[in-house]
């Protein structure tokens, strides 16, 4: 064989080896590319599953929050209704006492006229004290109702703060103990 043929043969073998290497490298690249795409797809699926779980948990927390808020509002309405009934009863009692005080005042005046002028002053003082007592009971009834309403609102607000904290994921930090 001549040198020229040998060189052509060597060049052809080198070209074939290079082509074979090129093809193998292409196959390896395609395999690696497929692996990377599969990894990306798995990562995307994992993130989607995580997002779905987070959405489900958020929906559950929002549902619980809405239920607790409705419960707190209903409880406050029930407290206020009970308090209003108590206040009306106390005011009716105070009104009855006022009428009774008016009748007693008339009795005191009649006794004072029958006795002496000094007794008239005592009767006026006693009547004033009776009126003040009846008015004081009315004020006490209204203030007691206001205080019970305020306590009910504070309890409802406390429950709502606890509900809001539970929504925020802070279950251990309670604003107050549940009533």
Cα-to-Cα separation, first versus last residue: 107 Å
The number of distinct structural domains comes to 2
Summed over residues and divided by their number, the pLDDT gives a mean of 86
Largest sheet: none
Oligomer: single chain
Order of helices and strands: HH
Strand element count: 0
Count of separate DSSP helical elements:
2
Radius of gyration: 46 Å
**Unreliable sequence segments:** none
Secondary structure category: mainly alpha
Q: Hey, roughly how much beta strand do the residues contain?
A: under 5%
Fraction of residues in H or I helices: over 70%
The shape, in one word, is: rod-shaped
Topology:
Elements: H1 3-114, H2 117-167
Helix pairs in contact: 1-2
What does this protein structure show overall?
This protein is mainly alpha-helical. It folds into two domains: 37 residues; 117 residues. Helices cover 91% and strands 0% of the residues. The protein contains two helices and no strands. Helix 1 runs antiparallel to helix 2. The protein is rod-shaped and about 165 Å long. The model has no long low-confidence stretch (mean pLDDT 86).
């Amino acid at each position: 064989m001549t040198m020229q043929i040998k060189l052509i043969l060597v060049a052809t073998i080198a070209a074939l080896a290079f082509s074979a290497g090129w093809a193998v490298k292409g196959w390896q690249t395609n395999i690696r590319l497929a692996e990377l795409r599969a990894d990306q797809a798995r990562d995307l699926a994992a993130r989607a599953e995580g997002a779905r779980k987070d959405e489900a948990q958020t929906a559950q927390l929002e549902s619980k929050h809405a239920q607790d808020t409705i419960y707190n509002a209903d409880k406050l309405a029930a407290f206020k209704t009970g308090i209003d009934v108590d206040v009306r009863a106390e005011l009716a009692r105070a009104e009855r006492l006022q009428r009774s005080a008016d009748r007693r005042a008339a009795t005191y005046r009649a006794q004072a006229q029958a006795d002496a002028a000094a007794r008239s002053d005592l009767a006026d003082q006693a009547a004033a004290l009776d009126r003040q007592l009846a008015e004081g009971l009315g004020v006490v009834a209204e203030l007691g109702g206001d205080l019970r309403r305020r306590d009910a609102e504070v309890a409802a607000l406390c429950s709502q703060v606890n509900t809001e904290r539970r929504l925020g994921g802070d279950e251990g930090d309670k604003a107050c103990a549940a009533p």
